[in-house]
Amino acid sequence: MSDALEQFRSETRAWLEANCPAEMRTPQTSEDETCWGGRNFKFTSQAQKDWMDRMGAKGWTVPEWPKAYGGGGLSKEEAKVLSSELRRIKARSPLNSFGIWMLGPALLKFGSEEQKKHYLPQIARGEIRWCQGYSEPGSGSDLASLRTSAEDKGDHYLVNGQKVWTSYADKADWIFCLVRTDPTVAKHHGISFLLFDMASPGVSTAPIKLISGASPFCQTFFDNVKVPKENLVGVPGKGWDIAKYLLTHEREMIGAMDTGDARETMAQVAARKIGLENGTIADAALRTDIIRHEIDAWAFALTMERVKDTAKAGQGVGALSSMLKYYGTELNKQRMELLMSIGGSDGLLWEGDNKGDGDLSRGWLRSRANSIEGGTSEINLNIIAKRVLELPGA
Amino acid sequence: MALVLNEDQAMIRDSAEGFFKAEAPTTAFRKLRDSKDATGFDRALWKKMAEMGFAGVLVPEGHGGSGFGYVGAGLIQEAIGRNLSLSPMLSTAILAATALLVGGTDEQKAAYLPKIASGDLLMALASDEKSRHTPNHVATTAAASGNGFKLNGTKSFVLDGHVADKLIVAARTSGADGDTDGITLFLVDPKAAGVSIARQPMVDSRNAAKVVLNDVQVDGADVLGEVGNGWAILERALDAGRACLAAEMLGVSAQSFETTVDYLKTRDQFGVKIGSFQALQHRAAHLFCEVELARSVTLRALQALDEGDDRASIFASLAKAKGGEVAKLATNEGVQLHGGIGMTDEFDIGLYMKRARAARETFGDIAFNGDRLAKLMGY
User: Which of A274, A304, A384 is the best substitution to test chain B (most B C-beta atoms within 10 A)?
Assistant: First the structure.
């Protein structure tokens, strides 16, 4: 490692030592402790707020974004050092945000200079919490058929329609939303990418309860919502390009879920719940299922690693993101099925007095959505057939 | 190490792909098969492979090899898998070379490794005795006799056994059948009194032989490694074989997959290309993913052997298990998606399926390697 990078490491270590509150170095025990930021966010503690504010002010919530847009301006190598130092002290994530994961990358690529200067620093500092308005009741896999309209009224757009599966719409401050600005052209060409305040008159939300119980998902309604014209990102009618770009991002994220963390492995869970006999899991038939799953899971994890290393080496990775989403989510569903089998009747518990009671059955149910949200497995197979294999008529 | 080929390795891959496609394509395989060639491969090809540095891929430069390592060996094996090329690469350049590198004395290395690299010495590993791979099952005995040992027993599925100039035989000097302690490796002259070798024609037209040892006298100097401690050497040789077979199966899988996708783009039914049917598209797309997974585990296993990673055995079994399942899927889907012509001898896809079947059994399928991996991981 170069001297400059070594110096960056020691400065980073010292800064984190001074600025990461002790409480933020303890493991998060539930999803309720995730920091999302935003105008109305209720911090669980002062430490949580301090950690977000300090990291946000330094731009380290988005280490690789340019400093001019509120980022840390770090190089890839420096960002790697930062994340390894954060791991070293077991720091919690200072800020989780759809702004960081999704809108930010889209604005960096498609936004105007004014939009970047306005929106990106708010995201970096956790001031505005964003939600994503994509799916509609009649437009799921066929997303481009969406009907929420944005009518050009001269100085503003008038938005009418309904979105569904909007994560945290009831908690978000702003929405980035796919709308139809031109109903007269082919479906992919009349879509635009619009940003607006969820506090605007005419916006309302209603939560959706899933088979797993409560969920972050909402229905979102727009009734004559006025949106300033300058809130459109990119070119009117070219919103589908942005949507595709973001879906690729989302698929990489969902595909990457549940890999590489320090949870108990399935084999460890099985050893604890079922026990070992002569050093092997006492249920031989279930052990075989576990082994086969672990082989696939390991092969998938190594593939994620290979894709990253290939990109790092400057070689093309091709259209692999659809593959990662498809395979990763199918594996995770299988994993939850096996954990339920290992758990037996314990796994069926829905609620109880102990912390974690009911988590497994709810997690199992929630995982069924993995291969639906962000593009179904079947849509992703279509995409592989079309873009990678170049099969006819796909 | 990053899971990506470096520049040297990319060059080996390109030269191996070009070489086997030009020198040993499936037409060459068919010629040897149909003529029931007594050797089972083309000795002139093996000589050329030596000149390319392939025969000495694992042999250090000091012993006349090219020293490309296991990643290099795997890339050669992948090209062999793609073209179904016949050669003693696995038996001699990978299994025997690894056993000698791990267990050989300086004298043994100097005597054998340069000849392996130059293509002048063929060797075969005689370890298996049961029809399902169970390497610790060694009932063949080696009893002290004179200044050496007397071997008795029967070995099966000895790759290239009928043409080998030297055999590496696993025999028991102590302990009971199934023990890993007490196994000793011997360098045995196949022409020695009491050795009888019978070729076994296999479904994939590759060389395998049954070797019967009847009071075969070997010298004490022909022990490879220490008496009673042959297991570690055998394990490393088998792991090298597993990882390199995973690489060969990757070539088999990738070629079957590409041939099948090409077929989907050319075959017309109902007035359209059959590749426009979603039922077939999804199967092809899924197969694409599986081949990518096989590529990842194979590269990791080969790198682990090169690095001396203490998890090399785990990765070798992971690659062999996953690679075998993918090769099964790729070749079976290949035949099914080709339809009737996939069943004909005229089309190559069936040849790939036969090779995949045999390669999966060799040194353990997913049942063996999955169980081994789990035990190594503590479950």
Answer: A384
Q: Are residues B47 and B22 in the same domain?
A: yes
pLDDT higher for B304 or A312? Answer: B304
Q: What residue ranges in A174-248 does DSSP mark as E strands?
A: 174-180, 191-197, 203-207, 217-228, 232-233
Total domain count, chain B? 3
Instruction: Examine residue B2 and state whether it is found in any structural domain, yes or no.
Output: no
Which residue of chain B comes nearest to A278, CA vs CA?
B379
Mean of the pLDDT values across residues B212-223? 97
Q: Are A108 and A77 in contact (CB under 8 A)?
A: no
What is the amino acid identity at position A380? N
Are B224 and B236 part of one and the same domain? Answer: no
Tell me whether residues B276 and A394 touch, CB distance under 8 A.
yes
Contact with chain A for residue B370, Cβ under 8 A: yes
Q: Which of A268, A312, A378 sits opposite B2 (nearest CB)?
A: A312
Nearest to B265 among A267, A270, A391 (CB): A391
Q: What is the pLDDT of residue A374?
A: 83
- Does B328 contact chain A (CB < 8 Å)? no
Closest residue in chain B to residue A290, using alpha carbons only: B374
| Domain limit, last residue, from B104, B122, B140 | B122
pLDDT digits (tens, 9 = 90+) for A304-358: 999 888 888 877 776 666 688 899 999 999 999 999 999 999 999 999 998 888 9
Domain range for B150 is: 125-228
User: Which pLDDT value is given to residue A76?
Assistant: 87
Strands (E), B146-204: 148-159, 166-172, 183-188, 195-199
Catalytic residue among A78, A85, A136, A250: A250
Looking up tokens 């999966």 gives: B360
ipTM attached to this prediction: 0.96
Per-residue pLDDT, A30: 77
Count, residues in chain A: 394
Closest among A155, A161, A224, A150 to A194, alpha carbons compared: A150
CB contact under 8 A, A271 and B379: yes
Report the CATH number that the domain containing residue B201 is assigned in CATH. Answer: 2.40.110.10
Residue B339 has a CB neighbour count (10 Å cut-off) of 12
Q: Is A127 a catalytic residue?
A: no
Phi, psi angle pair for A313, to nearest 5°? -80, 5
Q: Is it the case that residue A253 has pLDDT exceeding 70?
A: no
Is the predicted pLDDT of residue A259 greater than 50, yes or no?
no
| pLDDT at A246 > cutoff 90 | no
List the single range of A389-393, B80-84, B180-184 with lowest mean pLDDT.
A389-393
Residue B373 has pLDDT above 50, yes or no: yes
Helix (H/G/I), strand (E/B), else coil: B228: coil
Whether B327 is in a domain gets the answer yes
- Please tell me if residue A295 touches chain B, with a CB cutoff of 8 Å: yes
Please report, for the domain that includes residue B299, its CATH number: 1.20.140.10
Look at residues B84, B104, B122 and tell me which one is the last residue of a structural domain.
B122
User: Judging by beta carbons within 10 Å of its beta carbon (0-12, 13-18, 19+), is residue B32 exposed, middle or buried?
Assistant: middle
Tokens of A139: 């437009």
Please report residues of A whose CB lies closer than 8 A to that of B293: 296, 299-300, 302-303, 327
**Contact B304/A at CB under 8 A:** no
Which residue among A306, A326, A391 sits closest to B296, beta carbon to beta carbon? Answer: A306
Q: Which residue of B2, B265, B371 is in closest CB contact with A392?
A: B265
Q: Does A24 touch chain B (CB under 8 A)?
A: no
Burial readout B44-63 (b: 16 or more C-beta within 10 A, e: otherwise): ebbebbbebbbbbbbbeeeb
- Structure tokens of B344? 């004909």
Domains of chain A: 3-96 (1.10.540), 130-238 (2.40.110.10), 257-388 (1.20.140.10)
> Mind listing the pLDDT tens digit for each residue in B90-137?
999 999 999 999 999 999 999 999 999 999 999 999 999 999 999 999
